[in-house]
Design brief:
Length: 277
Amino acid sequence: MYKHLFGPVPSRRLGASLGVDLVTPKSCNLNCIFCECGKTEKLSKERKIFKDINEIKIELTHALAEMSPDYVTFSGAGEPTLSLDLGNIIDFIKDNFKVKVAVITNGLLFNDENVRQELSRADLIATKINSTRKNIFDQICRAEDVEISDCMHGLKIFSEYYKGNVYLETFIIENINDEKEQIIELTDFVKTIKITKWQLNTLARKGAENWVMPANGETLQRIRTEIINCGYPPEKIEIIGEFSEKINKFEKNKDLVKNMLEKREYKKEDIKKIFKA
Ligand code: SF4
């Protein structure tokens, strides 16, 4: 019986990703308008212990005896760095299994030295920046008591400290953060940080707010070109595409699939791409 793990999820960025949810739904320090987990009713501002870590370790031990995902990924019903168990469980995985670990984080806590240290053994950190402008950050992320300048500082010091791969995502929303001037400002900042890849993404499923419009393919291409025209290396900026079907499919585990479908909507085609019939 799995309570904390889900998937493996067909991730467009990570391949077959076995999810671990360290927080209870929905615990996040942001309330992004595009969030696929729905609205954050009350922002969580403090790190704490959300779950029984031994239950998570037992589930991981069972699951990893039966499958070899591309990544074990900390994501799910909110922001994984809010969990005080994050470092402990990353260490448990890296000490006991030969599997890569990814953490999907909004990066708000990169200014916290403990968080940086806890993330240090992960193989990949997938994080975000959608704009360098205060009004746009406030409009998209609806943070409280957090300035975009603090997030930029945290991202910069994290990128200098961390030795693994950093995928930086920018979520493009039509008529909010897609204008040329903003893209130029954002590129000027991204040029100053050490990352592996910069990825442009847009809404693929229903977001927290119905009025949020995904950017179309033309807009994403135009933005990629503008970024390259600002001198950013073309090989490091990509538009997130479809999930690759070139993977070994997994046996379905009833609980892991149920947990996965409770978190987000998946198209039937995507389910077919990752699980055996
Ligand atoms: S998109 Fe990520 S950071 Fe934003 S509200 Fe959802 S879980 Fe939190």
